[in-house]
Specification:
Layout lengths: L1 H20 L15 E5 L5 E6 L4 E6 L4 E6 L1 E5 L2 E7 L3 E8 L4 E8 L11 E7 L15
Antiparallel strand pairs: 1-2, 2-3, 3-4, 5-6, 6-7, 7-8, 8-9
Length: 143
């Protein structure tokens, strides 16, 4: 049941992001043709992902679990929007960022796989309403 809910949430997030991309705004890609690092850092301090939009290299950090890993995913840049995905036997990562509005979302699911350390499954949905203030460090959110 929980996995079905997370999968549905991921699909809704991707569909909503694609719909927002059609709302207009600048059509010139803001990233240009050079390597560009971007990060999506959860506003509640749960974690962050740092992504190279040219190579697909990424590092994801789950702050509350003190767990970090990296890999290579697929990146697509459409106008102001960056879409990222990495699907492997042990994990699924999805992200979207609007570079014009400097906002992003990421959905991360890690479960036991053949090349992964023994961990409890992790499921996270991160929202970043202001990508310009990212520190790419773990911190505790104020309550």
């Amino acid at each position: 049941m929980r996995r079905t809910s997370l999968t549905l949430l991921m699909l809704l997030m991707i569909a909503a992001t694609m719909a927002l991309a059609q709302n207009g705004g600048p059509t010139k890609p803001p990233l240009g043709g050079t390597a560009k690092l971007i990060s999506i850092q959860d506003d509640k301090g749960q974690g962050f992902i740092v992504l190279n939009t040219t190579t697909g290299d990424y590092t994801v950090t789950f702050c509350e679990y003190d767990y970090t890993f990296s890999g290579i995913g697929k990146v697509e840049v459409l106008g102001c929007n960056v879409y990222f995905s990495a699907i492997e036997d042990g994990y699924r990562m999805f992200g979207s960022a609007n570079m014009c509005k400097q906002q992003g979302k990421a959905s991360c699911e890690v479960f036991e796989g053949p090349d992964m350390p023994k961990i409890d499954p992790i499921q996270e949905l991160w929202v970043d309403v202001n990508m310009t203030d990212n520190t790419n460090q773990c911190w505790k959110s104020p309550r």
